[in-house]
């Protein structure tokens, strides 16, 4: 029997920038059981599509570039929306091609822009933490003035992972603000007034 794939299960959240220093010192009430500051780094995400065909099928083709590397990834939505979602993240080039070609036969890793159209591009500065020995907590500051947080968990069981994330966030309401958080792409389309359906 084939092993189940690990899925990225995530929930976005609003945060108050004035509380980031409290987060860093683990000085909130209640404090996290354990909090580890990992790294701060900057990267540029470039998304490609053609006539919205990929996004309409729940696929986001993303090239992530840093000073040191470039990674192509197909994020295939299993469930959810911009705020609360589960993705199968594909990074192997052959598997990416297998995921994209049935929808866009013109896709090619040898062509500029992979033979597709530029959908979105922005630069993010990300602060990463590991909380309670299990949860990735990331704070993203995007170059067009948006900020959003994410709690991420890699799991084979998306429903249980979402329940775990919900319980985790409910434990620390002083930092994880209630309200609908706007994802980066969603905010990009709004701020740039991009009608990406044409």
Secondary structure layout:
Elements: E1 7-13, H1 20-24, E2 35-49, H2 53-56, E3 59-65, E4 70-80, E5 84-90, H3 93-100, E6 117-131, E7 135-142, E8 147-155, H4 158-171, H5 184-191
Antiparallel strand pairs: 1-5, 1-8, 2-3, 2-6, 3-4, 4-5, 6-7, 7-8
Explain what this protein looks like in three dimensions.
The chain is of the alpha+beta class. The protein has helices at 20-24, 53-56, 93-100, 158-171, 184-191, and strands at 7-13, 35-49, 59-65, 70-80, 84-90, 117-131, 135-142, 147-155. An 8-stranded antiparallel barrel has the order 1-5-4-3-2-6-7-8. The chain is globular. The chain starts with 6 loop residues before the first strand and ends in a 7-residue tail after the last helix. The relative contact order is 0.24.
Quick rundown:
Helices cover 20% and strands 40% of the residues. β6 and β7 (135-142) form a beta hairpin. By secondary structure, it is of the alpha+beta class.
- The helix tally amounts to 5
Proportion of strand residues = 35-45%
Which stretches of 5+ consecutive residues score pLDDT under 50?
194-198
Radius of gyration: 18 Å
């Amino acid at each position: 029997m084939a092993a189940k794939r690990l899925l990225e299960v995530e929930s976005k959240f609003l945060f108050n920038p004035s509380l980031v220093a409290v987060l860093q010192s683990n000085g909130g009430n209640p404090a996290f059981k354990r909090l580890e500051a990992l790294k701060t780094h900057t990267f540029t995400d470039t998304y490609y599509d053609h006539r919205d065909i990929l996004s309409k099928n729940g696929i986001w083709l993303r090239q992530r570039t840093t000073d040191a590397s470039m990674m192509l990834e197909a994020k295939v939505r299993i469930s959810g929306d911009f705020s609360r979602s589960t993705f199968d993240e594909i990074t192997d080039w052959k598997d990416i091609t297998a995921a994209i070609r049935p929808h866009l036969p013109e896709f090619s890793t040898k062509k500029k822009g992979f033979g597709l159209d530029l959908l979105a591009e922005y630069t993010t500065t990300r602060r990463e933490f590991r909380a309670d020995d299990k949860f990735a907590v990331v704070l993203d500051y995007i170059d067009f003035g948006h900020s959003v947080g994410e709690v991420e968990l890699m799991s084979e069981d998306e429903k249980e992972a979402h329940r775990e994330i919900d319980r985790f966030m409910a434990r620390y309401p002083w930092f994880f603000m209630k309200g609908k958080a706007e994802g980066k792409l969603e905010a990009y389309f709004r701020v740039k007034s991009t009608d990406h359906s044409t």
